[in-house]
Amino acid sequence: MEYHRLSKEQLEELHQEFAKYLAALSIDRKQWEEIKANDPQTVDLHLDQFSDLVWGDVLSKDLYLEHLSPNHFFIFECLEKTMNLIAVKITNVEQDITTPEGWQWLLHHIHDESVTFYRSSKDYDHDRKEELYGMIIKGAQISSDKRFKSILEFLA
Questions:
Q1: Which run of H or of E encompasses 143?
Q2: Any idea where the domains of the chain sit in the sequence?
Q3: If DSSP codes are grouped into helix, strand and coil, which group holds residue 58?
Q4: Between these two residues, 133 and 150, which has the higher pLDDT value?
C-alpha cells in the first residue's frame, strides 16, 4: 500500500465511487456482500487499493493544505510545480484563530502589531505526491482555497 487506508467516514462519504470501483472490477453488490462475509483478506485488499487510488488522485491535483493552531497557522497552496506558503502568527492576543470568531478578528486586525505574516514559495524537493502526503501525515488538513485567497487579498 502506497498511502494509508481511508477512514470509515471517508469510505462512507465515497461509497458511490467505491461502488464504481467495484463495478470496474466486475464485482456486483451480491458478490461484494459475499466477499465481505467470507473473505476478509480480499476486502482489505480492495479497500487498500481503492484508498491508494483516491489518495493518488487527490495528491495529483492542485490543492490547499492547512496546519492550524490557536495562535498561528500555515496555509499552503500546492500547485503542480510550486508550493506557496502564507504563515500567520498572533502574539500578545487572546484569540483563537481556528474559530470563526477568531478568524473574523484576524481579518479585522490584520495590520496590528500582534499579527505577523510570512510568505514564501518553493519548488518540490522530490516527488510532489510524497511531499504532500508527508505533510498530511504530520497533521496538515486538506482545505478549500478560501483562507489562502482571503489572506492573499489582504497582503496584495
A1: strand 141-143
A2: 8-60, 63-155
A3: helix
A4: 133
